[in-house]
Amino acid sequence: MRESAVQKNRGPALANKVIVIDPSSEEYEREIVYDIAQRIEGRLLALGASVFLTRGAQNNPSESERISFTNESGADLLISLHVDHHKNASARGVATFFYGSDQHGVHSIVGERFASLVQREICARTDFLNCRTHAKTWDSLRLTKAPAVRVDLGYATNASDIERLARPDFRDTLAESFIIAIQRLYLAAEDDAKTGTLRISDLRNAGIRR
């Protein structure tokens, strides 16, 4: 409940939000997720948000360093970007993860909602297979003070997913999906819109940039 109250108190504009984007450094995905992170960053900056990336193009901080960086930044949200891999080359699709444990009866209310919004926006705007939203207790989700979401953007071991991710227009669509999901997280229920219908230009025209 406290998470939800803090979220509502920040208001709908993105200009006072601090967003941390954490692109993975694994060799098979580092270029893809870093490029998508930069596309998200540019769009958020244009809407007045403060944005921090946990790494640059070449460095590779540890998980604990990324968590500390996020907590010290005063982040409102953490978005961790990955591309999955699997021994079965037919494994494909997008999945999102938030902090939660059914065994212990705890979960991040805001994290779960944001993960669901990201999942729904991406699946509405792309032909990625919907691998749904899941609760996990990974350190990157559990130890981060801000609501945190991990997004697995397809599989590096699947030819069709990699073909999608190689296209600049597809990466742009993914970036816009993230922006709309972030904005919808902060909108009041009466101001929300149907999944897949909002555009970044709508946010500017509505005057909720600041």
* Quaternary form: single chain
Structural class: alpha/beta
Mean pLDDT: 89
CATH level-two architecture: 3-Layer(aba) Sandwich
Domain MurNAc-LAA: 70-183
Keywords: Hydrolase
GO molecular function, one term: N-acetylmuramoyl-L-alanine amidase activity
InterPro entries: MurNAc-LAA_cat (IPR002508), N-acetylmuramoyl_amidase_3 (IPR050695)
How do the helices and strands line up, and which of them pair or pack?
Blueprint: H1 2-9, E1 18-23, H2 30-46, E2 50-53, H3 63-72, E3 77-84, E4 94-101, E5 106-107, H4 109-125, E6 130-136, H5 139-142, E7 148-155, H6 159-165, H7 168-186, H8 200-205
Parallel strand pairs: 1-2, 1-3, 3-7, 4-6
Antiparallel strand pairs: 4-5, 4-7
Helix pairs in contact: 2-7, 4-7
Observed structural traits:
7 strands, single chain, 42% helix, Aminopeptidase
Please, could you describe this protein's structure?
It is a single chain. With 210 residues, the protein is of the alpha/beta class. The protein has a single domain (2-201), classed as Zn-dependent exopeptidases (Aminopeptidase). 42% of the residues lie in helices and 20% in strands. Strands 1, 2, 3, 4, 5, 6 and 7 form a seven-stranded mixed beta sheet that branches. Helix 2 crosses helix 7 (168-186). It is globular. The relative contact order is 0.20. The mean pLDDT is 89. Keywords: Hydrolase. One of its GO terms (cellular component) is outer membrane-bounded periplasmic space. It holds the Pfam family Amidase_3. Residues 70-183 form the MurNAc-LAA domain.
